Amino acid sequence: MAQVEETQHALLIPWGQFAQEIGLIAGIEAVQLKQKTVDHRPQTKVLEFLVAILVGTKHLQDISRAAHPLDRDTAVAKAWGQAGWANYTGISRTMKQLDWAESQALVTVLEQVSQPFLKRELSLLSRLEYDGDLTGLPVSNTSKSYPGAAYGHMSDEIRLGYQAGLVSLDSPTYGRFWLSVEHHAGDTVSCTQAENLILAAEQRTEQRPRRRTELLKQRIEAFVNSRKPAEKRLATQQAGLEVARQAKVETLNQLRALQDAPAQKPSRIATLERRCVRRDKAIAVAQEKLEKTLAWLRSHLEQETLLRKRFEQFEHDNAENPQPVCACFRLDAGFGTYDNLALLIEMGYEVYIKLHNHQITNMLKDRVTSETKWNRVGDNADMVAWNDFQPKNFPYTLDVALERFYTGQTQKHSTLAHFGDTPVTTNLPAWFGKYNARQTIEAGIKETKQVFCLHKLKVRSEPAIFLQEALTIFAANFIRWATVWIEQHAVKDSQTLPIAAMGIKKQVQVAANTSAKVIQNSDGMLVRFSTASAFAGKQLHFPCPAKPAQTNHFFALFTFFNLVAQKLR
Questions:
Q1: Rounded-to-integer distance, Cα 294 and Cα 411, Å
Q2: Which of 230, 241, 480, 382 is nearest to 249 (CA)?
Q3: What DSSP state is assigned to residue 219?
Q4: How far apart, in Å, are the Cα atoms of 225 and each of 86, 228, 266?
Q5: pTM of whole model > 0.85?
Q6: Cβ-based burial of 74 (10 A; exposed 0-12, middle 13-18, buried ≥19)
Q7: Which residues partner with 7 through β-bridges?
Q8: 214-242 pLDDT, tens per residue?
Q9: What is the DSSP letter of 209?
Q10: How many whole angstroms separate alpha carbon 383 and alpha carbon 425?
Q11: Rounded-to-integer distance, Cα 49 and Cα 63, Å
Q12: How far is the CA of 388 from the CAs of 249, 395, 415, in angstroms?
């Protein structure tokens, strides 16, 4: 006999079945949380928090107070393997009580569930394309209840809040695959986070390129040689300081001799006293010059020590990496310092970046003459480029391009830099397009904020905020995986909802907030959209009942991957 239920969140039904199949629900339920169960387990509330993100809930209270409250949708709760949902106040209490260890344990589950999907994508790639960015999560400037919040640059203004460091991978199946998110205080700046983003990407993919130790070795040798003039200057300054001190001693001895003489000469004594003052000044000047040189040498030696430690680490990395990959990293100007660029090069990446140093832009502008040929690379952009360009105080040669464009009536310039084997200077439109393809991460950040409402922090403890950040990028990945899964499992006919043709925004804001009947019997499950909905006459029919996740849920994942492979072929 068929079971018929009503839901106001239609797409959450198959998403729940998919979540069970990939082991997401079992994984979260297995996390130990130090909170007691009254009506609902804390793990259920964490799942409900994720589901609320999946339907684009703006405020936590909307779970219970929206026009169609999620916590009263029993069909959705059942699809997600739960007896029922908690009121939003219960979720708020659970999130507030999470500590960092519990939050990280939950994020680890998300990563474990994601890993088979990621490995499948990596197996399809001969080259990894990464994008990294830092995005602000502002809160009210007058708020005092957000721990760890700080003032920083967010959306071209100074706001109170947090920063999230994000890395995405270009994915052949899903377009964009979020790899990681790191939680920071609001005053964190991009230039300090490049290495963290790179290491986070390598940790998630478990792949990395060959480190360019030969370049780093040459850099260290040149760095040591660059110290020789300062060392020579130090010796000269030490000798000069000693001469100044001896001159002071001689003058003092002469002065004392005159002062002790039976017949004193006042004018001569006054002359020697003035000379003593000059000798003190000479000593102070010599000492100051010496201290500056010593400080420079100490800094130089500290930098050399860091470079040598980096060299040792990179040699170890190469020894432990028998199958290095080709990989590219794209970053915007906030990350484009010389230190970050050199690090990316030495770590083995092909680099596309916009330089942070405006002096380079001004210098390149001075190279441009009336004879310079600009190349049109976009509707509002021209470029001129140079290869084998050696910036001052930078260890490696680069491809650089001066870009000009208009914002309104104002012409602006910026400098693109590239390091790698691609001959970018021979095809400037392709270079321009390659760098600006990093808009995929900017579009992803926009999606997390406008579709999944990450900009509306629903919790006020830092471990819970970090969890919200992680759940949000997981939700963006999850829906893309689920779309392929639904395409593979749902019956195809004229009434089937064309889920693959929908964007993420439409799936979340419309299909996941649309009423439907859920009909289940021994033949399968049918989600039939309401006649009053935007999808009247459409349905999703799954002929075989979805089974609960196995103890080893990766068996289900491998089946799913085989289906994806068939589609790709």
A1: 45
A2: 241
A3: H
A4: 67, 6, 54
A5: yes
A6: middle
A7: 516
A8: 999 999 999 999 999 999 999 999 999 99
A9: P
A10: 10
A11: 9
A12: 56, 12, 15
